[in-house]
Amino acid sequence: MFYDVNEAEKNIVFIFMKAMLFGMPGEGVRRNEFYTEKDAQESVEKEGGTIWFRSGQKNYRLTREFGAETDDCQLFCEDTGKMLDGGNETLEKLLGEISETTFDNAVLTEALSGNSPVEMAREIQNKLSILSKSGDGLLDLGRSEQMLKMWRKGYLSQKERGQKAVSREKEKLATELENLENELDGLRGQKGQVAQAQAKIYSTEGKEEAAVIEEQLQAIEKKNLGMVIAGALAIIVGIVGIVGSFQLTDEMSKLGMEVCILAAIATVIYTLTARRKLRMEFVKHKKKKAYLQSQQEKLKSSQEDIDGTYEEKLTAFTNLQSEYQEYETETSLPTSEDLETQALNLAMDTIGELSRNIYLQKGRKIRIRASRILRELTNGKFMEFYGDEGQRMELSMEEGTVGAEELEREELEILYFSIRMAASELLTDEKILPVVLDDVFYGKRKESLMAISRWMKKQPRQIILFTENEDVKSIFSGKQ
After folding, report:
1. pTM here?
2. What are the pLDDT digits (tens) for 279-296?
3. Cβ neighbours of 422 (radius 10 Å)
4. Which is nearest to 235 in space by CA: 191, 267, 210?
5. How many CA atoms lie within 13 A of 365 on its CB side?
6. Which H or E run contains 437?
7. Nearest Cα residue to 415 out of 376, 476, 370, 381
C-alpha cells in the first residue's frame, strides 16, 4: 500500500511494473500516456528492482537493472529453482503475448469519473463496452469502424459530387437536344412548305399554265411575223403606188395609185401599232415564264439548303443522343466509389460480426465473473447485472431489478470495481499479474471496505493500492 503519494510517484510505480515486464521503451519508440519525460527519467533513476508474477501454475521472480548502459534481466522460476533466459521472447511466452495496452487495461484501475449517478453509470457502461470488445487497445474495433465510416462518407461525397456533375452535364445535353429537336421540327416544316410549292408548280395546273404561256408566246411570235410580212407588203405596195403616180398620166390611174399609197401607209401604221402591242404582250408573258422558272430554281435551291441544314442538325442531334446515352449508361453502372463503398460496408459488417463474437467470448465472461464478485462484495444484495452495448444497465435484486443510474455512488463504485477485477483476470487469459488500484475506495463505508478487503486477501495476485483515505489505510493495513 502507498499512502498519500502524488501523481508523479504513482506513475513511477506503474512505470516500474511495466518496465519490469516489457522493458524501458527505446528512443523513437511511441510512449503511452504514462511515459512522460520527467516520470521516465525518475523511473530510470530507480535503477531496477524485483517483481513476482504467476503463469502456467508456476511462480516467477523477475529482476531487472536499468541504467544508461545497463539493461540486465534475470528470470527465476521459484517452483523449479531454475534460472531462465530473461530475454523478451521468454517473457512474451510466459505472458501469453500480452501487449502493453492490454497490460494497461488489465492492471491499472483508476477512480470512476462522473459527478452524478447517471454520468457514473454511463462511464461504467462505456468502459464495459471497451473491455468486452477487446482488452487490447491495439484492436480498437469501434475506432476501426469509425474510420471505415469516415472513408465511406468520403466516397459517398465523392460519388455525390460526380453524380451532380453528371446531372448538370445531362441537363445541358437535354437542353441542347430539345433545342435541336425544335430546329429539326422547324426545318421539317420548311421542307413541307417547299414540297407543297414544288408540288403546286409541277402539278397538272402548273404544267398547263406553263404550256399556255408557251403557246401564247408562240402565237404572239406568229402574229408578229404576220405583221412584219404585212408591213413589208404594204411598203412594197406604197412604193409601187408612188412610182405609178409619177408614170401614169391618167387621173383615174393616179387616183388609184394614191389610194394604194394611203392604204399602204395605213397598213404600215397598223402593223407598227399591232407589233408594239404584241411586243408588250410578249414581254409580259416572257416575264411570267421567267418568274415561273425563277420560282422553280428558288424552290430547288431552298430545298437543297434546307436538306443540307437538316442533315447537319440531324447529325448533331444523333451525336448528342449518343453522348447522352453514354451518361445514362455511366450512371447505371457501378462506379469505383460504389465498389469502394460496398467493400467498406462489407468490412463494417465483418467488424460488427467480429465485435459480437468477441463480446460473446469475452464480454459475457467478464459480466458473469463481475456479477459473482459483485454478489460477494454486497453480501448477495445484487445478484447479477445486465446490459449489452447501447442498452440500459440493470442489476437484479431479490425484490426485482434496478437501473444502474438509480444506485448510490458507493454502489456504482463497487460495481465498477467488480468489472475491473473480472477484466484483470480474463483479459490476461488468467495469467496472474499484479493489480494497481488508484484511489478506487475513496469515500466508501467501513462495512463495504471490510468486504472488499476480505475479497482481496483471498486473491492470488499482488495488489498495489494508492490511497489518501485514513479508513482505507487502517482497514487494508490491518491496523484498525
Report:
1. 0.49
2. 888 888 888 888 877 877
3. 22
4. 267
5. 19
6. strand 435-438
7. 370
